[in-house]
Design a protein that fits this description.
Layout lengths: L4 E3 L5 E5 L14 E7 L5 E3 L1 E4 L5 E5 L11 E10 L5 E3 L3 E6 L6
Parallel strand pairs: 1-9
Antiparallel strand pairs: 2-6, 3-4, 3-7, 5-6, 7-8, 7-9
Length: about 100
């Protein structure tokens, strides 16, 4: 997965699309999703996830809606998928950089 810069203080939210592998799970319907950001200081920031009706689009957001406390520097993010069989699958780890905001108010 690609890396990117994220400006601290903004709202971390967006969508990701699950692409089913050949012969693999065709949708994420019926699974339990969780996701965390690990910032440069080692602090874990849990995200809120929801799945659309197709079972392919995941919407994510930081429930605090404020990332001003995130440490600047290298950060990591992944998504955990718990199947109804008890099997756990992790996404690729996304590496990104939290950079400081300039304007405060």
């Amino acid at each position: 997965m690609s890396s990117f810069n994220f400006k601290r203080g903004g709202t971390f939210s967006g969508t990701v699309t699950y692409t089913p592998p050949v012969g693999g799970l065709q949708t994420l319907t019926g699974t339990t999703l969780s996701s965390d950001i690990l910032d440069y200081a080692g602090v874990v920031h849990p995200l809120t996830l929801s799945l659309d009706g197709t079972g392919l689009i995941i919407t994510f957001t930081d429930p605090a809606s404020d990332t001003s406390a995130w440490a600047t520097g290298a950060a990591k993010w992944d998504i955990r998928v718990l199947l109804n069989t008890g099997v756990v699958i992790y996404s690729s780890t996304v590496n990104f950089t939290v950079i400081p905001q300039i304007t405060k108010d």
